[in-house]
Amino acid sequence: MMLQLFSVNRQFQRTLLLFLSLILVRQGNAQQSNRTDLLDQIDRIVQETMERDQVVGVSIGVMIGAEIIITKGYGYADLENDVKATEHTVHRIGSITKQFTAVAIMQLVEQGKLKLKDDLTKFLPDYPTKGHKITIERLLNHTSGIKGYTEMGDKLWKVAYWNLSHQELIDLFSKEPFEFAPGDKFQYNNSAYYLLGVIIEKAVGTSYTKYIEEHIWKPLGMNESFCLDNTPIIKKQAEGYEVREGRVVNDDVRINMAIPYSDGALDSSVVDLCKWQLALNKNRLIRKESYRRMITPGKLNDGKPIAYGYGFVLGNLDGHRKIQHNGGINGFRTQLSYYPDDDLTIVVLCNTGSAKAAVLESRIARTVMGIPEIVVEEVTLPKEILQIYTGTYTRFEVSVKDGKLTVSTRFDGSRLLRPVGNHMFVSAIDPYKKFIFTVEERKATSLRIEREGWVKVAPRTGEG
C-alpha cells in the first residue's frame, strides 16, 4: 500500500512539474512576443521619423534598469562612403556635454577643491564682473546673467573657425553687458559652461579633456567617448549633414571645437551614454547626495523654481518624471533622457541637423511605457486673427505664410504651428511643444513655449 502511494505521489509530482514548466514556457514565449512587438514598434517609429525629416543616420539606446532593451543604428554614419550607422557610431553630442562638465564640478566639490558658493573671480580674478557676484552655482543652473556667446551673432561667427584660446573667447563675451543680475532670471547660457571648463582646469592643474578622460571615461569603460579639438582621428565617427531646399548636403559650417569646449565639444555613442546614465543612477562617480542636488530644480532670487538643476533639464512626460538634456551642434541633434520612476533610459543620436531627436525620444518613451500618442484637435483661424500673433519676440520670429502661423529661429529655421484654441498652438512636427500667446487689446505681448516641463517666456520686441 505504501509503495503504491509513493508511486502515485511521484507521478503527481512529475505531472505538476510538467504543468508548471508549460506555464513558464508560455510566459516566456509571451514575454518574448511582447519584446519583439516592442522592438518592431520602435523600428517603425525611427524609420518613419527618418523618412519624414530626411535624417541620414540614427543610433538609439533603450535601457530599463541595467538591462539593455535595444542598442541599434539606422541609416548611414557616412553617406558618401556607404558606412552604416550602428550602436557604436560616435556622434557629436552637443550640449549633453554639460552633464559631464557638471559632474566634474561636483566631483571637485566632494574633493574640497571648490565650493558651489565660490565666486567666479576666485579662479578668474580678472573677469569683469561689473560689480556682480557670480557663483559657480549660478553658472551651473544658467542664472548668472552673463552674455551667452552663441547669442552674439556676427561677433561670434567672424571667429567661429579660429582656434581661440580660453582668454580670447572669454574676452569676446565678458565685455558684453550682463543680461540681468545674477539669480534674477533663468536663461540658457553656453558661456557659463565654457567658464566651468576653465574653472575645472584651474582647480586641478590639467586640461578639461584629461580630467574627463581620467575621472569619468576610464573608470566607466567609456571607450567610445572623446573630446573634440579638430585634430584627432576618431574611429566610427559619424559625418554631419544638413537639409537645404529639400536636399541632404554635407554640413559645411565646421565650427572650431575649441569654442564649444566644455559646453558642447564631446563625442560619444549610445552604448557609452547608457553606461554613463547607469553610473549616475548607481552613484559610481559622485555621492548620492551630490547627484540628488544636481537633479533638484534651481531657484531664483525671488524663490521661484526653474526647470533646470546642474546640467540636467527637469520635466515630465504625461506625469512620468523626466531628467534629460538635448544637444544641437552643426550637423547633429541628440537627446538623452532618464525616467526615474520607471528606471527607463533612452538615448537618441542623429547626424542630421533636420532631425528632431527630442520628438523621436518622446515617441519611443511613450511606446515603452504604454502612453498613448497625443491627438491634436486643430481649429481653423482666419488670417486676420493670425495677424494678432505675428511679430518679433526674444529669439523668435512669428509670421503668417500661406494662411498658416509659423515660428522661426536662427538655428531651427521656420516651423509650422497648428492652432488648438485659447491663443495656444502646437508645433506641427512636435505635438509635445506648446506655443501660448498672451494677448492684450488684440495684440500678442509675449510668447510662452512649453515642452514636458521646460518653459521659456519670450516678450514681444517688435512688429512683424
Mean pLDDT metric: 91
End-to-end CA span? 99 Å
Q: How are the strands of the largest sheet arranged? A: 13-14-15-16-17-18-19-20
The profile of the biggest β sheet is: 8 strands, antiparallel, barrel
SS-based structural class? Answer: alpha+beta
Which spans of ≥5 residues are poorly predicted at pLDDT below 50?
Answer: 1-8
**Count of DSSP H/I helices:** 12
Radius of gyration: 25 Å
Annotated CATH topology of the largest domain: Beta-lactamase
Shape: globular
Domain unit count? 3
The fraction of residues in strands falls at 25-35%
What can you tell me about this protein's structure?
With 464 residues, the chain is α+β, with helices and mostly antiparallel strands. The chain folds into three domains: 2-53; 95-228 and 256-321 and 356-369, Beta-lactamase, CATH 3.40.710.10; 383-462, Lipocalin, CATH 2.40.128. It is built from twelve helices and 20 strands. It has helices spanning 2-53, 97-110, 136-140, 154-157, 166-174, 190-204, 208-220, 261-264, 270-281, 288-294, 357-369, 383-386, and strands spanning 57-64, 67-78, 83-84, 91-92, 226-227, 241-244, 247-250, 266-268, 313-317, 320-329, 332-339, 344-350, 391-393, 396-401, 404-409, 413-421, 424-427, 433-440, 443-451, 454-462. Strands 13-14-15-16-17-18-19-20 form an eight-stranded antiparallel barrel. A hairpin with a 4-residue loop joins strand 11 and strand 12 (344-350). Helix 1 (2-53) runs antiparallel to helix 11 (357-369) and helix 2 runs parallel beside helix 6 (190-204). The longest helix is centred in the first third of the chain and has 52 residues, at 2-53. It is globular and about 60 Å long. The relative contact order is 0.13. Mean pLDDT is 91; it is low at 1-8.
